[in-house]
Design goal:
The protein is an alpha+beta fold. 40% of the residues lie in helices and 26% in strands.
Length: 306
């Protein structure tokens, strides 16, 4: 019973307090008490009644201030994060550009050193402006700069291909990935001859050296260079043998890994003129003199006499 009564009083506390205040006011008026006593009682009752509400309001105000501070702090942190993200993106872009410039500078230095040290060629530097599957590349110089069809394209590392089409301001080069590219070649170790031809495949990175005599010695690891019969300077690197295939006929073939990867070309050289090689300067080997045998006009007895 006491618990139930206490619960009911708690539930109806404001009403009870109001009734108490009214009762005190009536008693005070009936008894002739001073108004100060009533005011003090009212103040105490109102304070006791409003204390939970004031405490709740203060808590709400504190929570609102805390939430507002969190919101402002979050916005400030988000702006700082966005600023840091933009600065990081700018720094990464700058690093990429710097790395690209360093690589380009390294390539150009190599090209300059090659052009200075290679005295056999008259070279024209060109930039690759387009590449189609590595089989053909377009360069930024054409007939106005002296480029003509069948000129050789090289880098400091080896053979690239042959110029096939020329315009006023650009030219097309077929590389060793193109089946239309054929180059006279030989094994540097023993000068075994053959024809290097592009595979024409987008999958295989190798080209083929065909028409090798079955009796000739060709082994994996042999260096393949341009032969005197080719358009390229004699002895210029083409690639390296990676496999030899027996065809069961008079010829055999070999897979050759090109010395130059056509997918990584940025700048190349066009060979405008080549100095003659030592073999060309020496000329053909002189033939042995032919000694003619005159008929023997002596009589038979003299020819048979001891």
């Amino acid at each position: 019973m006491a618990v139930a009564l206490s619960r009911r009083i708690s539930e109806h506390r404001p009403v009870i307090v109001l009734l108490v205040i009214v009762a005190l006011s009536l008693v005070s008026m009936a008894g002739g008490k001073r108004a100060g006593f009533i005011g003090e009682g009212v103040r105490i009752a109102v304070s006791a009644t409003s204390y939970p509400f004031l405490k709740a309001m203060k808590s709400i105000q504190g929570a609102a201030g805390y939430v507002t501070g969190l919101v402002f702090s979050y916005n400030a942190c988000r702006k700082e994060a966005e600023t840091a993200r933009r600065k990081l993106a700018d720094a990464m872009q700058y690093a990429v550009q710097r790395n690209e410039l360093l690589q380009e500078n390294h390539r150009l230095r190599q090209m300059i050193d090659f052009a200075r040290t290679e005295q056999r060629f008259a070279l024209e530097a060109a930039e690759v402006i387009e590449s189609f599957k590595g089989a053909t590349v377009t360069i930024d110089c054409g007939s106005l700069r002296g480029i003509a069809e069948s000129m050789c394209a090289v880098t400091e590392n080896g053979v690239v291909g042959i110029v096939t089409r020329v315009g006023p301001f650009s030219a097309t080069v077929v590389t060793l990935r193109n089946a239309e590219c054929r180059i006279g070649a030989m094994i540097a170790r023993n000068r075994v001859r053959g024809i290097v031809q592009g595979s024409g495949s987008d999958i295989s990175p190798y080209c083929s050296m065909n028409y090798i005599d079955m009796k000739d010695d060709v082994q994996p690891g042999d260096r393949v260079v341009a032969s005197p019969e080719s358009l390229f300077p004699t002895g210029y690197p083409i690639g390296r043998v990676v496999a030899v295939h027996e065809t069961g006929s008079l010829w055999k073939s070999a897979d050759v890994e090109p010395a130059v990867n056509p997918y990584r070309l940025d700048e190349i050289f066009i060979v405008r003129e080549t100095a003659p090689s030592a073999d060309e300067l020496a000329g053909p080997t002189p033939a042995e003199p032919i000694t003619a045998t005159l008929p023997d006009d002596r009589p038979l007895q003299e020819r048979l006499a001891p």
